């Protein structure tokens, strides 16, 4: 308790830290065998065209079904996998699984690529080889990266992005608007897609400036020829506002939860689809 003075608080804090470190150490050891045991699953979440309300693809989201601890979210194990370097193998598995799942769904699949994986010297070569081996169509694959990939070694990042685009893949900038995202990124890097972070979407009904920010991101990205996707759409009002504002794609629990391939939605709830299709569009600013 902090009340008991600095020394106790410090001890409690240290104990908490040790527990955290211990938990991470166990997770890290388990990660090693989890891949061999097939404990991972790539869930899919629908990405929906805002105008037609049809599902045009899916985002792959990793889940770990731990034999003792049940389902673990990527937020809990991705940082561990990154810190231990295991993200390289895990990321390769994710890409291979996405290629396999492309045979079971229509449309495209996007996958998240961590910055360590992206910068790994064999990333582009391995990916090219995977595509060749599986015969997957690169135009049906999109890679989602965050700005953390871009912060240093700008030239190398541009080189990798260009190589990937030359192979036919699309690149999305994920979680746009969080962190340090600079507007200059949008002209400096060849993104096809911008994903508006869900924090902006969930603020739409609460703060009026969130509406201004979201519309500005849409106009900016669309004006630069990019596809704009909104993440974390949970309420019909959010979906309607985004559609009306010219956002191209919607993703979120309202339209479909992340689920395994045989359970994931193949179409949007008709009541929601009808409301989306009937929504008048605002004239674009550009
Ligand atoms: P992300 O790529 O931004 O993915 C979106 C996250 O929002 C996912 O969390 C998704 O389940 C969640 N989400 C989707 N719709 C809604 C909604 O309507 N409301 C709310 N509250 N949340 C929603 P998830 O699956 O826990 O993944 C978290 C993050 O972990 C991802 O954020 C991504 O950065 C990372 N991640 C997931 N899978 C992978 C992977 O295969 N490789 C790497 N490197 N990272 C991954
Ligand atoms: Mg993502
Ligand atoms: Mg995302
Ligand atoms: Mg995101």
From TrEMBL:
It is found in: Membrane. Residues 24-272 form the EAL domain. Belongs to the ammonia transporter channel (TC 1.A.11.2) family. This is Ammonium transporter. It comes from Rhizobium deserti. The chain holds residues 768 to 1053 of 1074 of the full protein.
């Amino acid at each position: 308790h902090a009340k008991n003075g600095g020394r106790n608080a410090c001890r409690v804090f240290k104990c908490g830290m040790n527990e955290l470190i211990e938990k991470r150490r166990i997770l890290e050891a388990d990660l090693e065998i989890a891949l061999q045991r097939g404990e991972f699953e790539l869930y899919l979440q629908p990405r929906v065209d805002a105008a037609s309300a049809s599902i045009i693809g899916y985002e792959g989201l990793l889940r770990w079904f731990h034999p003792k601890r049940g389902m673990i979210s990527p937020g809990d194990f991705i940082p561990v996998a990154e810190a231990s370097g295991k993200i390289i193998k895990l990321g390769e598995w994710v890409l291979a699984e996405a290629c396999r799942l492309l045979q079971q769904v229509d449309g495209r699949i996007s996958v998240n690529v961590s910055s360590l994986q992206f910068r790994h010297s064999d990333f582009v070569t391995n990916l090219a080889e995977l595509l060749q081996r599986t015969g997957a169509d690169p135009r049906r694959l999109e890679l989602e990266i965050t700005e953390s990939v871009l912060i240093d070694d700008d030239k190398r990042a541009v080189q990798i992005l260009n190589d990937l685009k030359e192979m036919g893949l699309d690149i999305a900038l994920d979680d746009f608007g969080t962190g340090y995202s600079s507007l200059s990124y949008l002209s400096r890097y060849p993104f096809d897609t911008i994903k508006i972070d869900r924090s902006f979407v969930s603020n739409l009904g609460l703060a009026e400036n969130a509406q201004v920010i979201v519309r500005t991101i849409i106009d900016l990205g669309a004006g630069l020829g990019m596809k704009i996707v909104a993440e974390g759409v949970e309420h019909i009002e959010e979906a309607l506002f985004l559609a009306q504002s010219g956002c191209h794609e919607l993703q979120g629990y309202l339209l479909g939860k992340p689920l395994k391939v045989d359970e994931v939605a193949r179409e949007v709830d008709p009541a929601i689809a009808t409301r989306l299709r009937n929504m008048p569009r605002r004239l674009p600013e550009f």
